[in-house]
Amino acid sequence: MNNSSVLFATINDSIGQKIISNAKKVSLPASSIVFYQGASCENYLLLTKGVIKVFTRAINGREILLYRVNKGQSCMLTTTCLLANNDYPAEGVTETDIEALMISLTEFNLGLAQSPSFREFVFNTYGQRLRDVISLVGDISFNRIDIRLAKQLLNHANQQNRLTITHQALAFELGTAREVVSRQLKSFEKRGLLRLSRGEIQLDNQCAIETLAGTPLI
């Protein structure tokens, strides 16, 4: 059984399996553009390896991460654009080397019309990504920046409570300006929660950071 068969085993009726087996295999190196804002959408991608980050860009150039597409998943915006015949409203870039199955619009529509398991996979994946985006909107709208930053620090820390990450990268994850992140990290450092060095952050008080990250919404 090949990797695609394992990843997409729930697509198990004859038409769905034929669509998967006939899909074109594509690969891209890290930092490649998968789609850009305003581009037409012509294919449905199923990721078999790697990670794609999907983000929007404000008029002032600031980027806000919407979600990531991981192995075994598809892109919510691609599904939306194919269904509505719209252009992409955001950008997708490979965060790592990726491999994917590319399904044409014709085959995609065939799967939705005639393959119950393919249709269920498409809309289940769509629903999962939609929940992620709604959660992100709620986080940005209602959580303080210090709480959100604390969560990101815990998410990125290794077993030694160390992060190798730039302030700009954290700002991208949080959808805010680098200066805001730098100012908040300096505040954390003054409180003894962490130590800052070039390109690295050492968490010195993980318990306090976990408490902050778990603070209820206000």
Description:
The chain is of the alpha+beta class. It has two domains: 3-141, Jelly Rolls (Sandwich); 143-213, Arc Repressor Mutant, subunit A, CATH 1.10.10. The chain has nine helices and ten strands. It has a four-stranded antiparallel beta sheet with strand order 2-6-4-5. Helix 4 (105-114) crosses helix 5 (116-142) and helix 7 (167-174) crosses helix 8. The longest helix has 27 residues, at 116-142.
Question: Gist?
Answer:
The chain is of the alpha+beta class. The protein has 2 domains: 3-141, Jelly Rolls, CATH 2.60.120; 143-213, Winged helix-like DNA-binding domain superfamily/Winged helix DNA-binding domain (Arc Repressor Mutant, subunit A, Orthogonal Bundle), CATH 1.10.10. It has 9 helices and 10 strands.
What share of the residues does DSSP label as strand, in percent?
A: 15-25%
Structural class: alpha+beta
Number of domains: 2
What order do the helices and strands follow? Answer: HHEEEEEHEEHHHEHHEEH
The count of helical stretches stands at 9
Largest sheet: 4 strands, antiparallel
**Global Rg:** 20 Å
Annotated CATH architecture of the largest domain: Sandwich
- Average pLDDT confidence is 91
Strand order of the largest sheet: 2-6-4-5
Helical residues, percent: 40-55%
CATH class of the largest domain reads: Mainly Beta
What coarse outline follows from CA principal-axis ratios?
A: elongated
Uncertain residue ranges = none
Intertermini distance: 50 Å
CATH topology-level name of the largest domain: Jelly Rolls
Structure summary, number of beta strands: 10
